[in-house]
């Protein structure tokens, strides 16, 4: 019988106890150490934990595995208060309360929004647009603390467009020191220099000096913020933003040459325009690189 080993990056103390196929996805059974004592959130009584389990398993969405959805499955524990008999759920360390997806799935959704709309991300991941909006709101409300001892050498600043006609923007700051495992550091409303400065100000002065490169779009707002806060960093414009600007120029010339047919799709280049082969990868492939998604690699 053939066997397959999968490297899965897990939160501290979380263990995998089983695996199985779930329709067209993957089911991974997990467990974690339960608390020895609990305080009742209703009456305030603290006592030795009286752990009980729900009879039905709990299923939460996690990162895709080989372009298929994966789910973490566990028996949901709760503490029964000995004083008031109140049943209090024990929240796992890998998800927030009242949601059905992991923290890292939230971050993956945020990275997926780079260059995409809410509707596109929802359709691609098989979730609702309302879920995407809720994830963004939870990320904005989260009080992020960046470990001052963390060494950050490369960062990225990206804008997310969350509403149709671009009426709501969010700035996303990502740690790109390890390109295979990007980590979201800050999320702020807006896409101007002030929003970028709010993100960068979450780093210490020493971390500002440690940054060697920053990857931003080709506008003026983010480079200006980086020039103010990152004295030893140089700007790196990645191929995603070059391709974006190139496509904007092509589209502008096409519209200028063919104003009467804006609603029709042209199969070739606009008249008078020669489109060179610049060796850029397809936009979707470049976006997957920007999001740090690794198909078949470590989760």
Number of strands: 12
Question: What overall form do the CA principal axes indicate?
Answer: globular
Order of helices and strands: EEEEEEEHHHEEEHHEHEHH
Distance between the termini: 25 Å
Structural class: alpha/beta
- Taken as a percent bin, the fraction of beta residues is 25-35%
Mean pLDDT: 83
- Give the helix proportion (percent range): 25-40%
Major beta-sheet overview = 5 strands, mixed
**Tally of contiguous helical segments:** 8
Unreliable spans are 270-299
Identify the quaternary structure here: single chain
Radius of gyration: 23 Å
Please explain how this structure is put together.
The strands form three sheets. Strands 1, 2, 5, 6 and 7 form a five-stranded mixed β-sheet that branches. Strands 10-9-8-11-12 form a five-stranded mixed β-sheet, with helices on both faces. A two-stranded antiparallel ribbon has the order 3-4. Among the domains are: 15-101, no CATH class; 144-239 and 287-291, no CATH class. Helices cover 27% and strands 27% of the residues. The chain has helices at residues 103-112, 118-125, 129-141, 193-200, 205-210, 221-229, 239-257, 283-291, and strands spanning 15-22, 25-31, 37-39, 46-48, 51-65, 68-80, 87-89, 154-161, 169-175, 183-189, 213-215, 234-236. The chain has 299 residues and is of the alpha/beta class. Helix 2 crosses helix 3 and helix 7 packs antiparallel against helix 8 (283-291). The two termini are 25 Å apart. The longest helix has 19 residues, at 239-257.
């Amino acid at each position: 019988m053939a066997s397959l080993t999968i490297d899965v990056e897990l939160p501290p103390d979380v263990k995998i106890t089983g695996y199985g196929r779930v329709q067209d996805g993957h089911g991974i059974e997990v467990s974690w150490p339960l608390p020895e004592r609990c305080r009742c959130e209703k009456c305030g009584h603290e006592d030795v934990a009286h752990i009980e389990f729900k009879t039905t398993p709990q299923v939460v969405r996690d990162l895709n595995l080989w372009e298929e959805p994966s789910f973490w499955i566990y028996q949901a524990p709760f503490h029964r208060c000995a004083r008031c008999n109140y049943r209090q759920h024990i929240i796992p360390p890998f998800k927030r309360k009242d949601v059905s997806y992991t923290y890292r799935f939230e971050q993956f959704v945020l990275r997926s929004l780079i260059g995409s709309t809410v509707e596109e991300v929802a359709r691609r991941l098989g979730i609702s647009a309302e879920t995407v909006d809720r994830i963004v709101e939870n990320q904005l409300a989260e009080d992020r603390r960046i470990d001052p001892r963390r060494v950050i050498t490369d960062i990225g600043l990206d804008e997310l467009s969350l509403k149709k006609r671009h009426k709501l923007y969010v700035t996303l700051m990502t740690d790109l020191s390890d390109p295979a495992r990007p980590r979201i550091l800050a999320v702020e409303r807006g896409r101007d220099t002030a929003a970028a400065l709010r993100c960068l100000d979450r780093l210490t002065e020493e971390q500002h000096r440690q940054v060697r490169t920053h990857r931003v779009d080709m506008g003026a707002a983010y480079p200006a913020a980086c020039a103010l806060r990152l004295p030893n960093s140089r700007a790196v414009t990645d191929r995603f933003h070059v391709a974006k600007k190139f496509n904007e120029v092509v589209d502008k010339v096409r519209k200028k040459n063919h104003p009467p047919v804006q609603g029709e799709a042209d199969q070739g280049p606009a008249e008078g325009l020669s489109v060179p082969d610049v060796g850029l990868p397809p936009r979707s492939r470049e976006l997957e690189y920007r999001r740090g998604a690794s198909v078949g690699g470590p989760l």
